[in-house]
Amino acid sequence: MIGGAEHNPGPEEARVLEKLRKASAPVAEAAFRERLKREFASGSFSERPVVVPLPPPRRKGRMRWITGLAAAASVTIVAAALNQPPQWTALPTSGSGTLVVNGVSLPVRNSAELTRRLRPGSRVLLQSTQDLDLVSSGLLAMQLSPGTELTLPSPPGRWFGRQARASVDRGLLRVTTGRHFDGARLAITTPEATVHVTGTTLAVIAEPAGTCVCVLEGTAHVRPHRGTMTRVHPGRQCEVHRGTADSKMGDMREAERPKLRDLRDRLQSVMN
Amino acid sequence: MTSHIRERAQEAGSTVQDLAGVRRREPEALAAFFEQHFDRVYALVHRLLGDRHSAQDATQEVFLKVHRAAHTLDPARDPEPWVTTIAYNVCRDFWRSGAYRLSRQAVSIDDPERGDRSLASRADDPEHSLISAERRDMVQKAIGMLQEPLRAVVVLREYQGLSYEEIASMTGTTPVASRKRYSRALAELGKILDKAAL
Question: Which residues of A touch B43 (CB under 8 A)?
């Protein structure tokens, strides 16, 4: 019935159809008809209005929305992809031993495998005879001393998501920031304090007695977990003893000065 | 219901020789072809577009397209569906044109169809002619108030005598959808005509 088959109209439909059929057909003006007939037979048509079809308005509106959303999604995806910072790269080391990454022991000399395994948020423990250098190109370089256990930070994004967080449970971590770190922030948490880094070269030492932060250049802010924030200037150090809320300022450890200089000079050239 | 329209068209159909002449664009064959199809084309586009000026423009466009494509005409087949499809496509282009949308919002003051009815009636029986013209205009106005897909299906079905399958293939829908549109169109037309007390 439905489809191509005929159907019997109901009374209402029949009433409408009757009215439609009673209406006479539109008739063209005789002059127009004659002119068009002449033109059609001869093939020489007079100037005529050009009909330029426009897309239907609803579809146009819908297409505009779809296009806009697609463009926004593309921009978001591209921006998110480009915002991704360079991941951690382990530099070759002459030491022997292992780096335990999320419970998996890896030889420190296999820097390619280390690089493949290292991810932001990875728990690492260095069991080696030498320091190990990790670099995120242009942003951040870190040096882990033997016995250091920490949680790797995610390097800050290029344009957004520029706050990174790491934690050092024990051992010694040296940090130097690269030229693309400008405007980013790194917070390093130890058992006693949080160190806020905005662009500097420093060492964070987590010892059984407490935390010591040595600043070679730039400025760092140290906040004991139960105390107030202290600014640490270049050449100075800040100690926070376990179980206290106080911080103690002093000249930085002499042993750290050449090591931090070496880190800065060596890794800045690698990083940038 | 609509078979009488078909039969009439087929009776007046072109011969194979006529259509072969149209293919070769012979003036006499073209003139005969024009005479055969003009009234139906004009009535179709007028009902679909709703006013005389648009109907004239569209009719001219239809015959221009027919002339250009005459060499593709198959003399063995009835050209009526071909011409109707061209006419419908031209109307669809008109519906999408900016000029048509503007014309829907404006009324031409020199259009006798919309102007003083007494000036337009010049037939022998002025009263009968006036009533007939008014009825035609009311129905045309009611058809013109339908959405274009509904208008198309009611005109193609009722005045061109097409089946639901033919309408579906012409308008890019399914026969079921055409059937439903036809019913909806009639229901809406009923309301509009009741309001106009026709």
Answer: 25-26
CB contact under 8 A, B96 and A53: yes
**Does the distance separating the beta carbons of B46 and A26 come in below 8 Å?**
yes
CB contact under 8 A, B27 and A7: no
By Cβ distance, the residue of A4, A24, A40 closest to B136 is A24
CB neighbours of A14 closer than 8 A, spacing ≥ 6?
A: none
For residue A150, the model assigns a pLDDT of 94
Task: For residue range B62-118, list pLDDT tens digits in order.
Answer: 999 999 999 998 888 889 989 999 999 999 988 887 666 666 655 444 444 444 443
For the stretch A8-56, pLDDT in tens is: 778 888 888 888 888 888 889 999 999 999 999 998 887 665 565 555 5
* Contact: B56, A48; criterion CB under 8 Å: no
Distance from the Cα of B24 to chain A's closest Cα (Å) equals 11
Residue A22 is nearest to which of B31, B43, B135, comparing CB atoms?
A: B135
Domain extents in chain A = 120-271
CA distance A94 to A104: 21
Q: Which CATH number fits domain A120-271: 3.40.50.720, 2.60.120.1440, 3.50.50.60, 3.40.50.2000?
A: 2.60.120.1440
The model carries a pTM of: 0.48
